[in-house]
């Protein structure tokens, strides 16, 4: 697989989001199946794996996904770029603990879970407005100088927040929501990141499965732990309203001998040299299909026609790429506009 740079890190142009092996898409697969899926992705050419400290049952089994990923990549750890994320909650700073000490405590847990002595890319998972971002950036800079992380990033932020952090400790990557159905990042995030050598790691690049063409208006998601129940674009009325976009994808998929999901990934790879999508799935077949998008290339004319067709389609259901979490552990995500 071709490689791309996100900051100073070289990664496969398509990475792998590993969350689904621990939570988020209903019943999780058996451990052996998940380990095999991650290893098959590596054998296919994927060298970029994404996890987080909270992927799992947050109350009873935090760290599950990190443990799983660490076990899966143990045989080729030095050959991959490993990304994980931390939250900082306000109550962690009670008793005089500093932000630097809090960040260090999270990092130590992740290092142990992942069975490694360094993290390639360490994200602040969401902004807590009660905690000075500048101090988090300073703490990350200290960890980079120490060599326990190679680079740091932010997730679900706007350009003003990104610029504030980048001015203190250069940011290597922004992990934001980006797909054919969520294109807000094109307005300010991509231009800023292109100018400053920052990678944009696109999560949910297939729009929670919608752009695969396998989700329909009558699709029933699992009752327990399936985040797709809350995705605006997967409400019945929005699925039906966004079908013209699927029709376009099917047209190009037929023309290129590819799948709709692969076309959606090839589109963003063609559009931005600094984007690295990290599609996530708990299904081995889907994982390998997504990675196969690296073999689908759009010509300049195909891209222009596809882009024009997409621009002519209104999009229904919108989440946005700026989110923050505030208050005590367990509070829901709260949107916040810059």
Automatic annotation (TrEMBL):
SUPFAM superfamilies found in the cross-reference section: NAD(P)-linked oxidoreductase
Keyword Repeat applies: no
GO terms for MF: oxidoreductase activity
GO cellular component, one term: cytoplasm
Keyword rRNA-binding: no
Alphabetical UniProt keywords: Oxidoreductase
InterPro entries reported in the protein's UniProt record: AKR (IPR020471), Aldo-Keto_reductase (IPR050791), NAD(P)_OxRdtase_dom_sf (IPR036812), NADP_OxRdtase_dom (IPR023210)
Domain NADP-dependent oxidoreductase: 13-309
Signal sequence residues: none
Protein name: Aldo/keto reductase
Source organism per UniProt: Bacteroides finegoldii
């Amino acid at each position: 697989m071709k490689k791309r740079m996100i900051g100073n890190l070289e990664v496969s142009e398509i990475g792998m989001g590993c969350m689904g092996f621990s939570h988020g898409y209903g019943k999780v697969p058996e451990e052996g199946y998940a380990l095999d899926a991650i290893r098959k992705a590596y054998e296919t050419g994927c060298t970029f794996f994404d996890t987080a400290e909270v992927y799992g049952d947050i109350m009873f089994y935090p760290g599950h996904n990190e443990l799983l990923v660490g076990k899966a990549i143990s045989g080729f750890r030095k050959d991959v770029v490993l990304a994980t994320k931390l939250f900082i909650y306000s109550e962690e700073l009670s008793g005089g603990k500093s932000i630097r000490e809090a960040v260090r405590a999270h990092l130590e847990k992740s290092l142990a879970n992942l069975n490694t002595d360094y993290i390639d890319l360490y994200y602040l998972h969401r902004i807590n407005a009660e905690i000075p971002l500048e101090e988090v950036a300073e703490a990350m800079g200290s960890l980079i100088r120490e060599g326990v992380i190679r680079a740091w990033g932010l997730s679900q932020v706007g350009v003003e927040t990104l610029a504030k952090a980048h001015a203190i400790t250069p940011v290597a990557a922004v992990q934001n929501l980006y797909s054919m159905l969520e294109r807000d990042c094109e307005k300010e995030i991509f231009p800023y990141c292109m100018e400053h050598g920052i990678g944009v790691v696109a999560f949910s690049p297939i729009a929670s499965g919608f752009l695969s063409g396998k989700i329909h208006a009558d699709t029933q998601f699992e009752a327990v732990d399936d985040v797709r129940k809350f995705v605006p674009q997967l409400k019945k009325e929005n699925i039906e309203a966004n079908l013209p976009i699927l029709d376009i994808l099917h047209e190009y998929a037929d023309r290129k001998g590819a799948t709709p999901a692969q076309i959606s990934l090839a589109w963003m790879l063609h559009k931005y040299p600094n984007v690295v999508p990290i599609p996530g799935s708990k299904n081995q077949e889907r994982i390998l299909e997504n990675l196969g998008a690296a073999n689908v290339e759009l010509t300049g004319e195909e891209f222009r026609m596809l882009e024009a067709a997409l621009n002519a389609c209104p999009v229904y259901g919108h989440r946005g790429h700026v989110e923050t979490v505030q208050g005590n552990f367990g509070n829901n995500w709260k949107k916040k506009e810059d």
